[in-house]
């Protein structure tokens, strides 16, 4: 026991706040500097992308299930929260152990740098944003922590050596506030600049695609089912589902784009964007479907695609005997394994440049992607595609196959009820159910509906555009008031009846009948 009173400890929150503000400055400064480098040079983007790559498949599926296409926003926000908490803890540590805190900050900066270097297409120069951000963050942390100490001296000795507490307090608040503003402005500026000041965006806006040598047949009348509330037959580009591993959308200037075709072929070659546009392009209607789509889900979309048949590219390359797969790789390191036979038969597998009469939207693969009738996107629809390697399933495997998904992914026969939505209330006397069914490359022959465990009854099919597109259906039903359950199943043109057997999305797509509960009043 000493006779002296315990020194009055400094209050804690200013130290926690110092840590959080310094971290915000780190990411803000790095973000604005990263405009000068590749998109993955932003530590925020790099860490998020690395996180997506190491996330176990079940967690990713869970995130897609629960958050749908908001999954990336949720990821960014959660990362931000975790980063602020860690930073606040470091600030608290700096209160007593500034050297230890500084060393830990340095270690974190090294980890951020490692995340940047782990991204496809980044080099040592791409470390600069992280280095600049870390330097700014450290300076801010040390400065703020010093001010926080003055604000409430740790070892109050009785004689006031420093400034009066009110003055010190005001200085700290002003410094922390200004740092926060600088952090926010550089973060917002960095995001805005990288979005706008970009050749890809400008070029896409100015691009006029050539017409198709072979145009898609006009849609027959009546492709949309007569049921209020149905989704449109053609999915507008802005509403088309988006699934990919890219946290920041790759921005590829078409003038630098090249596709390399190589591997087990007689003739390797590369193709430029201009060369591609000079070819005889074709149009096709095609419904894309994601393997992660749960029964009744909406990870499917239908569009008119413009592109060059991959079959023709492969004919020029001349695959060697023994080859049975084409591994397509994107500019950001995603890959898909597509059976060679699927790309050489007569289906419209395209190296696509256009979607619904426009150049591909950036997030749907600008300037060039693949679309392949009959296969889930993860084994066929490579966006931002830059490389086709003719190879063998025995020798190479693709991104999702390495993460537990099947190496082949033919789309399963599926149907869903779009209206009513679950637990919706319909008016009594003449309810209309409606939905969508698909069996790409084969076609839908029948859709049947069962209400409340009654007989399976035929639904009315809307007109068929092509066997590669989804087909809408409707079902008029004289509903008694009360709670009801409707179930749907489809039969394709091969006579296959959609199975009732429930399968999870992993490893090769969900199956089972979609059912909806609703009420009639
Ligand atoms: N480069 C790249 N291409 C990709 C993916 C990806 O993660 N990266 N995801 C694939 C998957 S799983 C699907 S379902 C489709 C989705 O295409 P969309 O986003 O245009 O709807 O893209 C495929 N192409
Ligand atoms: Mo997918």
TrEMBL record:
The chain crosses the membrane at residues 72-94, 101-121, 127-145, 172-193. Residues 247-397 form the Oxidoreductase molybdopterin-binding domain. It comes from the Bacteria. InterPro entries: Ig_E-set, OxRdtase_Mopterin-bd_dom, OxRdtase_Mopterin-bd_sf. Pfam families: Oxidored_molyb. Keywords: Membrane, Transmembrane, Transmembrane helix. Gene3D superfamilies: 2.60.40.650, Oxidoreductase, molybdopterin-binding domain (3.90.420.10). The keyword Transmembrane applies. The keyword Transmembrane applies. This is Molybdopterin-dependent oxidoreductase. The lineage of its organism: Bacteria, Bacillati, Actinomycetota, Actinomycetes, Micrococcales.
């Amino acid at each position: 026991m000493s006779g002296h009173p315990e020194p009055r400890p400094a209050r804690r929150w200013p130290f926690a706040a110092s840590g959080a503000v310094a971290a915000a400055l780190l990411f803000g400064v790095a973000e604005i500097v990263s405009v000068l480098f590749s998109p993955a040079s932003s530590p925020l983007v790099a860490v998020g992308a690395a996180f997506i790559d190491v996330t176990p498949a079940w967690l990713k599926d869970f995130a897609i299930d629960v958050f749908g296409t908001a999954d990336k926003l949720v990821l960014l926000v959660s990362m931000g929260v975790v980063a602020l908490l860690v930073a606040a803890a470091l600030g608290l540590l700096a209160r007593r152990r500034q050297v230890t805190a500084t060393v830990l900050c340095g270690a974190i900066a090294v980890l951020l740098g490692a995340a940047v270097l782990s991204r496809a297409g980044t080099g040592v120069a791409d470390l600069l944003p992280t280095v600049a951000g870390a330097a700014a963050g450290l300076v801010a942390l040390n400065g703020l922590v010093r001010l926080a100490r003055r604000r409430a001296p740790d070892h109050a000795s009785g004689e006031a050596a420093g400034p009066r507490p009110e003055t010190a307090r005001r200085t700290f608040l002003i410094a922390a506030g200004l740092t926060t503003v600088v952090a926010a402005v550089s973060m917002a500026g960095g995001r805005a600049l990288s979005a706008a000041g970009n050749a890809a965006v400008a070029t896409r806006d100015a691009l006029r695609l050539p017409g198709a040598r072979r145009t898609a047949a006009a849609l027959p009348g009546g492709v949309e089912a007569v049921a209020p509330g149905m989704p449109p037959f053609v999915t507008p580009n802005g509403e088309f589902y988006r699934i990919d591993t890219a946290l920041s959308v790759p921005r590829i200037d078409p003038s630098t784009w090249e596709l390399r075709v190589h591997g087990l072929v007689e003739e390797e070659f590369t193709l430029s964007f201009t060369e591609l546009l000079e070819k005889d392009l074709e149009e096709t209607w095609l419904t894309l479907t994601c393997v992660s789509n749960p029964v009744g889900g909406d990870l499917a979309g239908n569009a008119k695609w413009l592109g060059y048949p991959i079959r023709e590219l492969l004919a020029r390359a001349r695959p060697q005997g023994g080859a049975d797969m084409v591994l397509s790789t994107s500019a950001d390191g995603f890959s898909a394994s597509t059976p060679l036979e699927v790309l050489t038969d007569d289906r419209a597998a395209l190296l696509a440049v256009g979607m619904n009469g426009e150049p591909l939207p950036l997030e749907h693969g600008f300037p060039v992607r693949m679309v392949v009738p009959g296969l889930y996107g993860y084994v066929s629809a490579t966006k931002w595609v830059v490389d086709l390697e003719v190879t063998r399933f025995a020798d190479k495997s693709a991104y999702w196959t390495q993460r537990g998904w099947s190496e082949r992914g033919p789309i399963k026969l599926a149907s869903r009820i779009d209206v009513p939505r679950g637990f919706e209330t319909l008016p009594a006397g003449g309810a209309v159910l409606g939905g969508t069914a698909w069996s790409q490359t084969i076609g839908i022959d029948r859709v049947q509906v069962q209400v409340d465990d009654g007989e399976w009854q035929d639904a009315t099919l809307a007109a068929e555009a092509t066997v590669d597109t989804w087909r809408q259906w409707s079902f008029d039903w004289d509903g008694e008031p009360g709670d009801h359950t409707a179930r749907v199943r489809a039969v394709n043109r091969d006579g296959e009846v959609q199975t009732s057997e429930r399968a999870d999305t992993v490893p090769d797509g969900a199956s089972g009948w979609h059912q909806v509960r609703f009420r009639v009043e």
